[in-house]
């Protein structure tokens, strides 16, 4: 079920998106799982992020692919080589369908998981907020990992 603000905001969003010279983009509502996603552990290592949760998106103002990872301090940019991303796209053509600035590849490789989604950017930043809100101590504590699992469970449930 959509939040109430989504259904009332749709007409205005369409108006802004379709305006002449529009600079606004609609953020898609649902994540799409990528069950056939191919990435080896070695390829994951070349993406240069320090944890096993990350999202990748094309940032048009900077004209580059951007890799972000959630942390207790918020989202942090990680270096991403263009070659690493291009290799990933060749192996996973669905990545070429991501909408610039509003969708990203959301990766969960934490605690043995291997989940990949094309997700709306608000979902990517929701994960960041979840981690900021629930992180305790050096390792995060049990509560944060339960909340991360709940987040991904909800993401899996958003596919219809």
Give the end-to-end Cα distance, rounded to a whole number of Å. Answer: 11 Å
Strand content: 15-25%
- Main β sheet profile: 6 strands, antiparallel
Instruction: Indicate how many domains the architecture comprises.
Output: 1
H-E string = HEHEEEHEEHH
Helix content: 25-40%
Q: What is the CA-based Rg, rounded? A: 16 Å
Which class best fits the helix and strand makeup? Answer: alpha+beta
What sort of overall outline do the alpha carbons produce when their principal axes are compared? Answer: globular
Describe this entry's structure for a reader.
- This protein is of the alpha+beta class and 160 residues long.
- The chain has one domain.
- Helix content is 39%, strand content 21%.
- The protein contains five helices and six strands; from the N terminus they run H-E-H-E-E-E-H-E-E-H-H.
- The protein has helices at residues 4-18, 41-46, 82-91, 121-134, 141-157, and strands at 32-33, 53-59, 64-71, 74-78, 103-108, 115-120.
- A six-stranded antiparallel β-sheet has the order 1-6-5-2-3-4, covered by helices on one side.
- Helix 4 runs antiparallel to helix 5 (141-157).
- The protein is globular.
- The model is unreliable at 1-7 (pLDDT under 50).
